[in-house]
Amino acid sequence: MPTQHDRTAPPEIANPRRGVIATTFSVLLRHRGALAGVTGRVVGLSGLVGLLLTAVIFALAWPLFTHMRNQVVWYHTYLEDPYLHDGTDLALVALGTLPLFLLLLGIGSAAIQSACSRAVATEARREDSPGRLRPVLAVYVLRALIVWPLPLIVAVVADRYTGYHLDTPLPLERGTWPYILVKYSPLAALFVAVLLRLALTLAPAAAADGLAARAALRRSWSLTWTRAGAARVVALAVPLVVLTAGVLRLVTQVALPLRPLVRGLLEDATGNFFAAYYAGILAPVIVGILVTAAVAVPLTCTAFAALHNHLDRRDALLDA
Fold first, then answer.
1. Is the pTM of this model over 0.70?
2. d(Cα 292, Cα 21) in Å, to the nearest integer?
3. Would you give per-residue pLDDT tens digits along the chain (320 residues)?
4. In 3-state terms, what secondary structure has residue 130?
5. How many Å apart are CA 51 and CA 76, to the nearest integer?
6. CB neighbours of residue 290 within 10 Å
7. Euclidean distance between CA atoms 208 and 130, whole angstroms
8. Phi/psi at 184 (nearest 5 deg)?
9. CB of 275 within 8 A of CB of 62?
10. In 3D, which of 293, 300, 298, 295 has the Cα closest to residue 49?
11. What DSSP string runs through 230-299?
């Protein structure tokens, strides 16, 4: 006959003393000093590196800004018409350097995720969460390669067949079913990408708990594609996305007075209106991203680490 000890599962597995939300705020409160220190160092260093990258990109793009300025002078002198500059080349430069900023964002997020996972493991009285940076960063890279190529490729193909191109006839006739299907196919691809992203949401926390990158992706998939897992991931992800977007919007709006200040300072220093104009546009956005990262990333990483810990232990109990 089994004893009472045999019939009762360990309290932290069978009957978690806290829910995911309570655990999240308990970890953030109890480890506020350590997590605030890590977040401050990571966000501060990322901000400095990001500003350096931005300065380098502006230096490389300076011939474009100079060309725009010369065009303005030429139009005003010889044509007496306003100059409507074409930002296509600058957009290409931005797209070409975007992976550098995404890599910087991934490294910072991986460092904060590792610290948050260690804090959650300590709260749960576990010692098996090494919080390694390299596997977590590898998860971010692999997850991005899995999730985002599909909508990007579909969007490019759809634009090729349905977008407006000067002096180029459309391959598909407007109003036909093939045209409509191709035109709105990026929405379907984006929906698939969002589902994949949700299914792999717990992978960084799994990697921080000691799994290799591919094993962490598989573990996140198996934990999420259950009735309880999917509902909890969505219930946690939606308010976090809303919070992050709201903080970013609010801080960017508050920082808008930086725009004319930066524009005026840079134009006085360089004499190039276009470089100053784009720098002024970027200034409040950079401030918004840094403040939002400092507020939302620790909360998000801790919440998903707590959810991963909860679902992982629940899955272990069901397998037992």
1. yes
2. 20
3. 444 444 444 444 334 445 889 999 999 999 999 999 999 999 999 999 999 999 988 888 888 888 887 777 766 666 655 656 666 777 788 888 888 899 999 999 999 999 999 899 887 666 555 557 889 999 999 999 999 999 999 998 888 888 766 555 667 777 788 888 888 999 999 999 999 999 999 999 999 988 999 999 999 999 998 888 899 999 999 999 999 999 999 999 999 999 999 999 988 888 888 888 889 999 999 999 999 999 999 999 999 999 998 988 876 666 55
4. coil
5. 34
6. 18
7. 7
8. -100, 5
9. yes
10. 293
11. HHHHHHHHHHHHHHHHHHHHHHHHHTTTHHHHHHHHHHHHH--HHHHHHHHHHHHHHHHHHHHHHHHHHH
The DSSP element (H or E) to which 198 belongs, if any, is helix 185-199
Tokens of 108: 């910072």
**Taking the CA of residue 78 as centre, how many other CA atoms within 13 Å lie in the half-sphere pointing to its CB?**
6
Of the candidates 245, 246, 220, which has an alpha carbon nearest to the alpha carbon of residue 233? 220
Residue for token digits 């720098």?
Answer: 279
Judge contact between 38 and 115, C-beta under 8 A.
yes
Of the candidates 45, 28, 115, the residue with the CA atom closest to the CA atom of residue 299: 28
Torsion, CA 303, CA 306, CA 308, CA 309, rounded to 10: 180
Residues 6 or more apart in contact with residue 268 via CB below 8 angstroms: none
